[in-house]
Amino acid sequence: MSDELEVLEEWAGALLAKLEPGERRKLLGQVARDLRRNQQRRIAAQKAPDGTVYAPRKRARGGLRGKRGRIRSQMFVKMRGARFMRTDTCSKSIAVGFIGRTGRIARAHHYGEDKSGTGPVRYPQRRLLGLASEEKLTILDALLDAIKN
Fold first, then answer.
1. 3-class SS at 125?
2. What are the strands, taking DSSP E only, across the chain?
3. Domain ranges of the chain
């Protein structure tokens, strides 16, 4: 995966170098928003970037009802919103990720482990962020459209 990203970075970097800084920043902002939307849709569908389905949730002792009496059937509902899943853009790079306490929770689910006061805690891995093939095509299409204009 990292080899593919390096090839994409080299190819896109050459194309982005031809753009003016303002155009580049605008293009990267649009790509970041598109990536975040794709990530949000994929997380809502409970799928990893490679297309595999997330490991099912454990059954809670009290059933699927939370403290407030509503049924919780999906994971990461609040987390995938724009409030917690942020984009960061500058003239040279973009980043899509989670912030603060939500970032720690996302990291624990993404990698399948967390640290507690008594030691490491294991979880089923649920890859939250990553580039699927459709997202790579979205980036390439946006770059090619920007170069055409």
1. coil
2. 85-89, 94-98, 113-116, 119-122
3. 2-98+131-148
